[in-house]
What we know:
Layout: E1 4-10, E2 15-19, H1 20-26, E3 28-31, H2 38-49, E4 54-59, H3 67-71, E5 74-77, H4 82-95, E6 99-102, H5 108-123, E7 133-137, H6 153-169, E8 175-181, H7 189-192, E9 197-200, H8 206-215, E10 233-238, E11 242-250, H9 272-280, H10 301-317, H11 330-343, H12 353-366, H13 376-388, H14 397-407, H15 412-426, H16 434-441, H17 446-458, E12 462-466, E13 472-476, E14 481-482
Parallel strand pairs: 3-8, 3-9, 4-6, 4-7, 5-6, 7-8
Antiparallel strand pairs: 1-2, 1-11, 9-10, 10-11, 12-13, 13-14
Amino acid sequence: MTVQIDMGEMTGGARAGMDLEELLATRLLVQGNSGSGKSHLLRRLLEQSASWVQQAIIDPEGDFVSLADKYGHVVVDAVGTEKDLQMIAGRVRQHRVSVILNLEGLDADRQMKAAATFLDGLFEADRELWYPMLVIVDEAQLFAPAAAGEVTEEARRRSLGAMTNLMCRGRKRGLAGVIATQRLAKLAKNVAAEASNFLMGRTFLDIDMARAADLLGMERRQAEQFRNLDRGHFIALGPALSRRPLAVKIGPVETAGRGGSPKLLPLPDQPAGDAKDLIFTPAPGELPVPRPRAPEPVASTGDVLNQLNAASQAARDAVEPARTLLDYGEREDRINAIIADMLEDPDAAFQPIAALYQDFQVRCRIAKLPGGAPDLQVFREKLSVARAGVDREEVDESAWQQAELIAAELPDDMRGVYLLLAKAALAKAPCPGNQEIATVYGTRSPGRARWLLSHMEERGFLVCATDLRGNRIVTLTDLGWQTAPGDEAAA
């Protein structure tokens, strides 16, 4: 069944019909300067199709809320959270209720985020809810701008993505976009390009007239006629309207918007003296305007940073530094406990040092560690000992200090492996396997562990040998310590 929407009359008196089913499949773009009658056109379309198809209106100025009384639209004020708005959009599709998203009173940034959230909720509905719906977006250049403006990049990106989904991918989900804009030059091209039906109203700027003529397939010299269109007159083209450009005069509407053009009213007849008294004499009960107080001096950013640095430095100075990495005062006990908790996560061994240090700082703040978190270098040293699994009860402290001094000369990524080998040699334990060395090194590859041992051997820090059984023995040259034979393939 073909449903024809009566939009008004064409030149010659014939009725201007719009094929509603074709509109749902091909979308519509309305363009015209302020005062050209775009809102009147959209209202005519909404009123004529209200009984045939579900509608959702993105209304930045609250101009279409008057449709609710006569046609049963539900007005949704964008005052809740984004999650609430997305859930409402899902229920709109589920229950097939026509709605008006009223964005009046919100700033441009919040309008864009609210519209994006609502459109995403309509777009992401389950497949069984993909019923036909007209989605009308008034002042579409606000929600799909051609260039960045004063809004945040996040809001612009989200809104533009939602509008692109509506116009490019909405058809299969039953969503038919109808967008109206004051200027084609301000509207993102990938959004405008998806419309196949056009209603072009009065336009004055050359660039907009040229684009309108191109969209309608008219010659450039014919673009001048857009300047001469009266209010409510449009040039129509598209499969739902006409196969060739035709002039259309939009018919009357049954409801009225809250805006509209201002009407001239005569000024009140009032003597000049009375007018002066009205301006300069306070009215009864009018509160006096408070005089602004002198602003209090505001500390500069440099002063605030200096205060913070001084407080942090005082806290660090109040803490006595540890003598060795195994010095277990109360503060050191808490630091090592925090690092041990971090390493309980199986993936912690393979995270970059920057991510681990950031996690460490947060944990220190939560634990209210006296003096704050140690710096990155101390953290690296503590982490090396923790990865090596060194326990103060298992090693001789004076001998371990020698291992620390030599390990301090190594690059950071080698230090933990060197201490692991030193621990095994000091305890006369078997040489650790490749998998254990790789984990301390921060990788899952045993091949990287073999490469690291070869690299350390080339630099003279150790010597690797193999006994008659094929087990590996590592000698730490600077310490003169040697591990017991160990299977390099051991888990």
